[in-house]
Design a protein that fits this description.
Length: about 325
Amino acid sequence: MSNQVEVQKLNFLVAVQTDKFKKLINSYLLDPKQAERFIASVSSAVTVNPELQKCDAGTVLSAALLGEALKLSPSPTLGHYYMVPFEDKKNDRTVATFILGYKGYLQLAMRSGIYKKINVQAVKKGELISYNPFDEEIKLNIIQDELKRETAETTGYYIMFEYNNGFKKTLYWSREKMVQHALRYSKAFGATVAKGKYPGRVPHEDYFSGKYNKADEWVYSSHWYKDFDGMAFKTMIRQLIGKWGIMSVEMQTAFERDNTIETDKGKFEYVDGAEISAAIENNQRIDVRFEDKTESPADESGMSESVLNMSDLE
């Protein structure tokens, strides 16, 4: 067995203690203090996730270096980005990949210096008077009592940004439209009863109404169930900024790499967002098979796994 394979099979917490791994990290970061802080923060994130500890050390490092290049924290508490474990059955390995949280998107947008304002909010029942998609004017009767607003039913989502030069864009989606988006793009959320995998799961409408067996709570672990608003915020950011926003190189990289996994051939393929969120919530792995031949998007950060050649550790 080659040194490359042996190192890849190492637990990150073990590998990061080796001189070769430390040397590689220092060669990328070029700052001993930054490298020390990086190792501590990534090790902390890996320690609290048993499934992440089973990932090839090189893939954990690759995902974490991308986060570092974007100046985002790996702390699950902050929610900037997540390193999610995927089981690559074809190659008999578990890999970690980079998944950006909506708070990470906001961090990158604000840090670019382009945006004077950026805001994404849930619209509560009774607040929306009208929204004109042609001139993008929205009229709201905002609930002034913060506690009442917090507990009020969400009926839609609104996002706006304004550049420093005064250019503005807004977007409003009803909750029904967001549900349809989730049903279309998330197999885990869309299936009424997944055969064998999620036995006894009720339609999403019943779940949100509390009409489900609490003993089956585990089958609703996706964030589309547990944190619908959080998933909706991320969708709104991608919809508006992805189509109309000016994106820095950092943000372009984040958009390209978000919700994708790097295959054994160095290419990228999209992974179901709801399954990703379930893994984030429960520190679980996702089973994947690498079959897609989609071309790899450009990674201008220079921190992709294909760049991080594990032969450097030999």
